[in-house]
Structures are given as structure tokens and as C-alpha cells.
Amino acid sequence: MTTCSQPLPHPASEYLRKSLVLLVLFVAILSQRPLQLYAQPSAAPESALQGRLIDPLSSERTRSSMLAIGSANLLDTYLSAEKYSGTELRYISTLTKNTRWRNIRQTIFHEGKLDVVSNRADNNDELGGMYRFQYHLRRQWAWANGFSLEAGGGIGAELGFLYNTRNSNNPAQAYAALQLLPSAAASQQIRVFNWPVRLCYEACVPLLGLAFSPNYGQSYYELFSRGNYDHNIVPTTILSTPSLRHMLTADIPLSRKHSSALRIGYLGDYQQAELNNLKRHQYAHMLIIGITVTR
Prior knowledge:
The protein is mainly β. The chain has 2 helices and 12 strands; from the N terminus they run αββββββββαββββ. The chain is elongated and about 60 Å long.
């Protein structure tokens, strides 16, 4: 976690460096023309290489259901100055479909996660959970060579908790936030052993929002039983919550009709904040597996 005037802590910096490596690798893949992967069809007319328009009357929609499992690193100084590490499990559901506006697509996102983590001495545990909802509108550009790009943003809401099994005073922390989320995605259709595979990279960062946080030294008893409000609804910016969520996936069709596909990939989620003199972070590296269906 960081302050507004300090750089990201070492773990986050290391994670972001790895993220940049993934992004560079993805761009490198996109830079390779399809000719290197399979026989290129006859050249398309120049007009076909321009960003094509999406038919707003099309009812095509893509639904994805995914499970993710991986490592988590958690810190919340309201509960403990110790960093906790362990296992995280997530269920992710997305629905993407066209809108009535040409070239604009909407994505509805649901995510639930559970964390089981321990301190370095392995003599104390924390249990956490969170639900996230996001709604995005993004403009899409698509080209005849199978490459597409999306850019836009949306809103997000999250509600969660973190419970420390040892603390008798202040044993739990609650999380709630509303956020404005710029987002972008890029995808490329390739062929592997003459089988179509779609690579996709997505990234999202919180720009502005509101978040709940107890103040330093304030108990939940004071807040809820006595009603002692102490700057507990905090405006947030990208400076006070420097975070990144990104995902690199490959969709492998399960049939020649391409209506359903196996999705495998990587999810990196680096959430951090400093609010009311309290620091917290939640870092995760996860393996994704799921199914996507297009109708």
C-alpha cells in the first residue's frame, strides 16, 4: 500500500513489473501477422481493414462462467500490521452483448471471492470474502485480420469483510466502495494446429469513487452503537487507491460451430488503498478456467 507521495511498496512494484511483461508479450503476439501462424487468405480490400461497425440489431451475446484459484497476499493495518498470505478462490461471471448504439458493447460483471490466509509465523489466520459488481460500456473497433480493440469504462461496487481469528478487540473489518472504472481490452484471433484460438487481454483501474473506512483508532462499537461518525465515507482517487485488475485468456472452441469455448488464463488483481491513516492491500495471482457460450 502507498501514500499519495510514495511509490508502490515492493510487492506491488514486483507485481506491476510482471504485469508489464505480460502486456509486452501479448503485444508481441499481436504484432505477428497471421501469415506466420497459418495460410493467409486472399488480401481483403482496403475498406475491410478499417474498423468495422457492429450491427446494433444483432442479438449476439457472450456469457462466461469462470473459476479462479491462486495465491493471495493481504494486509489491513486496522486488524494487524502483519501481512497474511494463502489461498484465494473466485467465481466470475460476465455477460457481454451489443447495445442499440453502433459499435458500443456492454459488459455485466459479477465476482465472488473467498480468502484463507495465515501470517508468517503460521500461528494466526484471517478469513475474507467479497462480492463485486461492475457494468461497463466500451467502444469496439474490429479488423478483418481478427484483431479487435475496446476502450471505455463503467461503474463498480464492492462489499466484503476480513476476519482475524485471534483479535478480541476489533476482530473484523468491513469493506464497501463505489468506483468509476476506466477499462480496455484487446483480442486477436489466431490458429494453433489449424484450430482457431482467441487471445484476449483486459485491464481495469479505479479512477474515482467513495469508500467506507473506520478511522484510525475508531472501533465499530463507537461507529454503529454510539453513532460517532468520523469521516467514515471517504472520497477516493487513483492516488489514494492505486490499483490494477488485469486478465489474459485464451478461448479454445469446443466444436466447429464455435458457439462454446474452453477458457484458460491468468488473472492478476492488485488492490490497495490508504484511507483514514489505515493501509490495506489485496494482491492475487490466479489461474482461470471456465466456459464461454455465444448465442
